Amino acid sequence: MKKYKFYLVGTFLWALFLVSCKETKNNQVLSNDKTSALKAGYEIEPVNIQNVKLTDSFWLPIIKRVQEVTIDYAIKKCDEEGRFENFLIAGKQKTGTTRGDMPFDDTDVYKIIEGASNTLISAPNPKLERVLDSMIAIVKIGQEPDGYITTWRTINPAKPPATWVPVIEGKRWESLQISHELYNPGHLIEAAIVHYEATGKTNFLEIAIKAADMLVRTFGDNLGQVKGVPGHQIVETGLLKLYQITGKKEYLNLAKYYLDNRGNPKNHKLYGEYAQDHIPILEQKEAVGHAVRAVYMYAGMTDIAALMKDKGYENAVNNLWENMVNKKMYITGGIGSRHDGEAFGVNYELPNLTAYNETCAAIGDVYWNHRLHNLYGASKYFDVIERTMYNGLISGISLDGKQFFYPNALEADGVYKSNRGSCTRQGWFDCSCCPTNLIRFIPSIPGLIYSKTNDVLYVNLYASNNASFKLGKTDLQISQQTSYPWNGKIAISVNPKKESKFTIKLRVPGWSRNEVLPGDLYSYKKASTQKATINLNGEILAIQPENGYFTITRNWKKGDKINLNLPMEVQEVVTNPKVVTNANKVSLEYGPLVYAVEEMDNKTNFDKIDVTSSDAFKVKKEANLLQGVNVIENSKLKAIPYYSWSNRGVGKMKVWLDYKE
Fold first, then answer.
1. Cis (ω within 30 of 0) for the bond into 485?
2. Neighbours of 24 (CB within 10 A)
3. 275-314: pLDDT as tens digits
4. N or C, where is the chain less crowded by C-beta within 10 Å?
């Protein structure tokens, strides 16, 4: 992090903002073993990003851009639009009315703190840490004495910032369906836990615990308690994470209460399919409604399945995952086909020009699939994660780190304003959840690379890094060197402190096993004949992938070297015939990357581009194009990685190309 400029919301509070909150260690709020609850649930746990130093030429520049550009940019935007000022007005440190247009504007501040905290793990930065302490001090001002925290209602409960939030008597919780009074503390709790894990400080965590304790007192079926569930899910996963670090079962029970009572008309007036509140969650078998809300809820359900060994939750989660991946997922990993309701459509409804594919939904889907991998250890969940990350997720942020897609379309005609009123990325939105969610997620990427049990190491993603951690009782150092995703050669060094027997599982991506995604929604027009190979200390291992992993169990010693080769070639993808919008069309892939043709590179023939059975393609590195990419070319077209489109102005684009025999 080079430097930080903090944009103050009032010069009379200058002294307050410069005073960092004292570093406090409140061990009474934490269990003796903060991971005990986690370990009791998931058999597999991620290797913490504190133990993984990324050196990768693909992901590290993206993370650094967020660290050095996007966070500072977002702080400035939040200041300009009154996000900080709302906390001060709520705490009576300033006078005024609620600023901003959304009842969840508070969460932009929380998500910035969360993302910035993750960057502190990767790259300690005292200046940034002081900025965060100042932001946390501002948040604390806006919290009511009993722990309640939603600034617009504290400022003036009779006047919400959005006209679509109903006011009846101006009381708390009276419009849970749309008020975001539970969504706001949900993001607060999630961010506070990351900040605590990154810094060891409890200044933000104490605010979150105070809010969570207020929720525990408030909601339930006991006399005097409020009945109801969140309109927008996320407080569930926040409470479950808080349970895992505190051991306080009241948080676990409240999260399950919220989930158990969705679709329960005896508890509240149902919100309908839009909020996944049409039937009880254990009866839900189809992914419906608002896609972000859905995957946040599914993540919480997966936590309950793991933490409470609940088979009903587990079965429901598996049914929902199968439906989404087999019938409702775009080739980019995007989900949510409809602008109306930011929602899933019906099965096989996957339009391209009007695709929604909200960036937040892609992020939420990664969170959910990561939990599923922790539960089952199957590579298919990382096939979804990898496809989403390299394509439909990072497409949400521009190469300069200051422009954003809210929806991520798979086609553009240069006229239809797919991105909330724009044909290209925008610098900000009145609803700025996607930019701040990217800030929240991208710095956490190193924590996805490895997972472990006591005697098994999962290598899930390929990116250059150096990692040091304990595998059971073994002190282990492991490093990767690779140019992935531009080629599939990965060199891995394994260095246990002393010779030890354990298992390493190296993921063989679905694309390398002739599987686009799990299920039959997509397939390669022609299966590749190239196979993934692996050698150990120079000797080829004659093993086949099992459950999507090369598995090696042996006595490992210092200096052991694994070389994995995942051959890449241009592949043509076709869609299940039930997706009528992609009939007689193909998409081009190379390794984990989905490609798009953009008018910028095909000015004379864009509308006539097609692919025929006789076409041959070549892949070429262009170091000066779009910060360095591999392009796919032949005599008729030039294609670029989908994530990089629309960085050179407004124009036409398409992922699916007409195919002719």
1. yes
2. 11
3. 999 999 999 999 999 999 999 999 999 999 999 999 999 9
4. C
